[in-house]
Design a protein that fits this description.
The structure holds two protein chains of two kinds. Chain A is mainly alpha-helical. Helix content of chain A is 37%, strand content 3%. In chain A, helix 9 packs across helix 12 and helix 11 packs across helix 12.
C-alpha cells in the first residue's frame, strides 16, 4: 500500500464529507500524543513519575552519595555531570557577550545604560524567565526580551537567532548562577496557559519519523543509548541553559558554541526531522516555558558544558 | 462528534486501498526538492509533516493514518544493501536504537543480533517496519512506510539482512 501522502489526505477529506460531518471539519485537529502528558507537573520532583531516578540527583548531597555508591550515569538519568563541574572554556564566550552588552549605539546608549554595569539589575532574573511582558502582551523568553530592547531602544538588529543575542543571553544567564528556577505555571494566567500548550507540543507526534519530543525524552528511551547520544527526561536540564555546547553547533552558527534553550529545541527538531520552529515564536516559547517550569525547584548552573562530544548524528 | 481510533481509520484504509489501483502521482512532485537517502533530508520537505507552529499549515496537520500491510513473500531482498540502510544515519538508522547483526548499536530497542534464529514470521517483521503502530500505537520506531522513510524494496532489503543466518 504505497500511495502518496497527499492522496491520503484527500481520501481523509472524502471520508469526512461522506460521513456528512461539516462541523468536524472546523474542529481543531485531533493530534496523536505520546502517553504521559497528564503526569507532567511544573516541578523538578515530577521526574519521579517518569524515571524513578530523582532521588539520585535532586541536590548536591544526593548526587554525591549516588556517585559514591557506584551508580552509572544512565542509572542517574544522565543528570550527574553538570553541577559538579563549571565550564571554564565558556568564560571567553561570556566575555564576548559582556562586550555586546556594553556596545554603544550612535547615541552612546547600550544595554548597560538601563540595566547597570555588569548587568547589576539583571541578577537572578533568568531563573524567572520566560515571563509575561505586559507591554508586548505576550510571554517572552530572555532572547525575545533582548531582541525587543535591542531593536526598539538601541536600534540594533539583534534577533533571537543571532550571534549578539545568543552571547548576551549567555552573559545574562550567568548572572543567575545558583538561583533556584521558579516559574509560576499553576496560578491561572498566561504562563499557565503557555505551559499547558508547550506540554501538548512536547508530547505531540510529528515530523518525518512521527516522533514527539517525548519519544526520546521519556522512558523507555530516556536513560538509554541512542547510538552515541544519551537522551534524558525533560526535568531539570533547562536550569543549565544557555549552555556551552562545544564542539557541536548547527551548520551556519557563529555563536561560539553557545546554545540557548530555543536553539536546543530547534536542534532537536532538526535531529528528529520536525520542521524547525522560528526561535522566539509563540509555539517555541511555549515549549521553553514547559521545559523551564519542569526545572522549577532546581538550581541554575551557568556556565556548564554539554557532554555531547559527537557531532556526527545531526541530520 | 468524536471518533475512536478504529472508527476514524477504518474507512480511510478501505478508501486508500482502492486508490492504489490507479497509481496516480501528484503533479507537483517534480517541483519539490527530492530527498536522496543517505543525504540530509531537505528542510522544505519537513513542512509536509506535523510541526510545532501555530501559523504554518504543518502546525495543524495530524499524523498519517495507521497502515495495515500484508506481506505475501517470498522475501526478495539484497542483504548487503539492507545492511547499508540499517546502519546509515540518514537512511534507515536502525542502529541508533538497536544492536544489529555484526554491529553494536543503541539500547532503546531490543537487540536484533540473532534475529534470524528467532524465526519471526515475515509478515510480522514487514508490518513492524512499515508501520509499527499497528502493533502498538505508542511504539517508538519511526513510521517508515507511511512517511516514506523507506520503500517496500528498502524494507525487504533490511529484512534480508536481518534474516541472514
Amino acid at each position: 500500500m504505497n500511495i502518496p501522502r497527499k492522496l491520503k489526505l484527500l481520501a481523509f477529506g472524502a471520508c469526512l464529507a461522506a460521513a456528512a460531518l461539516p462541523a468536524s471539519a472546523e474542529e481543531y485537529p485531533k493530534f496523536d500524543y505520546m502517553p504521559g502528558k497528564e503526569l507532567a507537573i511544573p516541578h523538578v520532583s515530577g521526574d519521579a513519575k517518569f524515571s524513578n531516578t530523582y532521588q539520585y540527583w535532586k541536590d548536591e548531597k544526593a548526587l554525591e552519595d549516588a556517585k559514591k555508591s557506584g551508580k552509572m550515569s544512565h542509572e542517574m538519568n544522565y543528570k550527574d555531570f553538570r553541577w559538579a563541574v563549571k565550564s571554564f572554556d565558556a568564560e571567553g564566550a561570556i566575555d564576548i557577550g559582556r562586550g555586546y552588552y556594553n556596545e554603544k549605539n550612535a547615541k552612546g546608549q547600550s544595554c548597560a545604560s538601563c540595566h547597570g554595569a555588569e548587568g547589576k539589575k539583571l541578577k537572578g532574573i533568568y531563573a524567572n524567565y520566560p515571563a509575561y511582558n505586559k507591554r508586548l502582551k505576550r510571554v517572552v523568553t530572555v532572547p525575545t526580551q533582548i531582541k525587543a530592547c535591542a531593536t526598539e531602544r538601541l536600534g540594533f538588529d539583534w534577533k533571537e537567532n543571532t550571534r549578539q543575542n545568543t552571547l548576551i543571553d549567555f552573559f545574562v544567564g550567568s548572572l543567575s548562577d545558583g538561583k533556584v528556577v521558579k516559574i509560576d505555571a499553576t496560578s491561572p494566567g498566561p504562563i499557565k496557559a503557555s505551559y499547558e500548550r508547550g506540554r501538548d507540543l512536547f508530547f505531540k507526534r510529528g515530523g518525518h519519523f512521527n516522533f514527539a519530543c517525548a519519544s526520546c525524552h521519556t522512558p523507555p528511551a530516556a536513560g538509554k543509548y541512542l547510538r552515541g547520544q544519551r537522551p534524558t527526561t525533560f526535568f531539570g536540564d533547562a536550569a543549565q541553559y544557555p549552555i556551552y555546547h562545544f564542539p557541536y553547533s548547527l551548520p551556519g552558527d557563529d555563536f561560539e558554541y553557545v546554545f540557548t534553550l530555543q536553539h536546543q529545541i530547534k536542534s532537536c527538531q532538526i535531529l528528529s526531522r520536525i520542521y524547525p520552529g522560528e526561535e522566539g515564536s509563540p509555539a517555541m516559547t511555549d515549549i521553553e516555558v514547559f521545559l523551564k517550569a519542569s526545572a522549577n525547584g532546581y538550581k541554575m548552573s551557568v556556565p556548564v558544558a554539554e557532554y555531547n562530544m559527537d557531532t556526527s548524528y545531526l541530520d | 462528534m468524536k471518533f475512536g481510533f478504529k472508527q476514524r481509520y477504518l474507512p480511510l484504509l478501505v478508501l486508500a486501498g482502492s486508490l492504489t489501483v490507479g497509481a496516480i502521482a501528484p503533479s507537483s512532485a517534480e517541483e519539490a526538492p527530492k530527498w536522496v537517502p543517505g543525504e540530509q533530508y531537505p528542510r522544505e520537505l519537513l513542512k509536509n509533516f506535523p510541526c510545532h507552529d501555530y501559523d504554518l499549515p504543518c502546525g495543524k496537520m495530524t499524523s498519517p493514518p495507521v497502515e495495515r500491510v500484508e506481506f505475501k513473500g517470498p522475501l526478495k531482498g539484497d542483504a548487503e544493501r539492507g545492511e547499508k540502510i540499517a546502519t546509515n544515519l540518514r537512511w534507515g538508522n536502525c542502529i541508533a536504537c538497536h544492536a544489529l547483526p555484526k554491529h553494536e548499536g543503541g539500547s532503546i530497542g531490543p537487540s536484533l543480533k540473532g534475529y534470524a534464529h528467532r524465526e519471526m514470521p515475515l509478515d510480522y517483521t514487514y508490518q513492524r517496519l512499515w508501520d509499527v503502530r499497528f502493533y502498538n500505537p505508542n511504539a517508538f520506531m519511526p513510521v517508515y512506510g507511511p512517511n516514506k522513510v523507506l520503500t517496500d524494496q528498502d524494507i525487504q532489503d533490511v529484512m534480508a539482512f536481518l534474516y541472514t543466518k
